[in-house]
Amino acid sequence: MRFVLAIVAFVLAAVMIVLGIAQRTILLEPAFTSLGSTVTGDTTYTVIDPSALAASSGSQTINVRGDGAVFLAYGRSDDVAAWIGTDAYSTVGFSEETGELTSTVTEAVTPDDEVAPDAGAADAVPADEAAAIVNPAGSDLWLDEYTGTHSLTTTLTLPDDISVIVASDGIEPAPASIRLSWASDNSTPWAGPLLAGGALLLLAGLVLYLLALLHLRRSRRPRRNIPRGPRMPRLPRAPRPKSIKASQITTSRRGITRRVAILPMVLVSGLALSGCSADLWPDFSTADTATATPTPTPQSTDSVEAAAELPPPAVTVSQLETIMGEISLLSADADATLNTETISTRFTGPALEQRLANYKIRAVDPAVAPLVALPGAPITFTLPQQTNSWPRVVMTVIQDENDPSIPTLAVMLKQESPRSNYQVDYLFALEQSAHVPEVAPAVVGAPAIAPDNKLLLLPPDQLAAAYADILIQGAASPSYGLFESDGDNFRIQVADLNAAKVAALPSTASIEFAAAAGSDEAVALATNDSGSIVAVSMTETETVKPVQEGATVGPAGDALAAKALSGITTTTKGFQNTYRDQLLFYVPTSGSSDKIVLLGFAQGLITSAELP
Description:
By secondary structure, the protein is α+β, with helices and mostly antiparallel strands.
């Protein structure tokens, strides 16, 4: 019976081991699925459509080959289309009928064409700008980008509203060879149990076989107290075999037995070691073990369906971190070298005006301090505009809680068109007591408020004029009751500086102060309570004139900066200094009992000139 059980165990072990090995060899599914395409035409841009990226499930491994430089980036499909605009491009798609990648060419749209394929993209990219910017590398629209030479391979996990743009340098044709691969799950969860079970059965069969042999050997031994039967006649003696010398024995029975015993042990050990891989065992864990994937497309925290109806945010948080890092490095270099051309690529509006004036002053008088540096991190607040069009606006706050000596800065960024990068439009130092109202999360964004919106306590385009009137008239201003005076350090600063200038003025001169709304457009983003965060600019002027004939006056206020800008020390005609103020307000909704609160400000001298 033991021999029967041993044979059954050996047979079952062999079957299980063969099945386990077959699952890892001849029955093993391929580790990945691959599709290739050769792009037709000589277009400078190639777009890999979401249908091609989703031709198979799993992460996409993209391999691009060309003759020279290779550039690859991915972004929202609408943003990719907007960047390309009316230029010719190739599209790599997927045909469900053939199961292969397809390649089509979209010709360039000329001004003579009646209908553009993408009117929004055509309007977003002016003809002169599209002609000037042809290299997609470095665009703020991309969620990430990669470069290489002759060949580039990267693995991504992209959702269905993301496209990939492939180019060389925007001048040479885009690389023609594109191959997409998807990793497939070829794990064999039952191979491990089969191999392990087969090994155990093999051991059990070996034990049963040895026990059967031992039992058979014992059963052949002589037994005691066995009754004797009749004596049998003696048989003739068999011839004695010749003796064999020890040197003639090549293999001992002990060696043979040892090999027979070692062979199953080696096989079992190899099977045990081969079963250590996690792909060979079933996973009974209930935890979600999916790997983290990029999620560049926003989703509402309240409802995915509701979020799908809203325009997407202008940028993601990771995009903004990259953008601010680049702007910080560029501005630091420009501030150190007083490079007006470099700073103009990333600054615009009143923020650029203040920096250019500071560069001009420091070029004449290096003793003048530079403006506060713009750090790129850490970003503690992000509020992008909800939009599919241009221009786009993003607000962010940079605060280093570990270093209180660095002021907390609020930045308003603007992107004028798809092929232009974000520029710093407004740059404020936040008030210490400023409380930014609750806003939508960064993955949702906030709608922009029109400058003439009358649903707020004060329309954004009237905000700067009303605040300027308060600086001049104080409590006598009709707008005084609309603004919160407690915690408004800018009013205190302006009042103290003006009083100091009046006190320092000689009796032979007079000074006059004025303030008015700036020429820059107000930027407003909605808050959760139907209010708005509004950025505006304001212009302050101080005019100094002699009151006695033949008397001379010098620049008032910041004399060093004024002399550097005007180039004049004294004059009999008089001086006029112009300051540009950047102001950030929270404006509550119309009918609210709350007041307009100043959140941050920045002030700088931009011109100083002799009166005509």
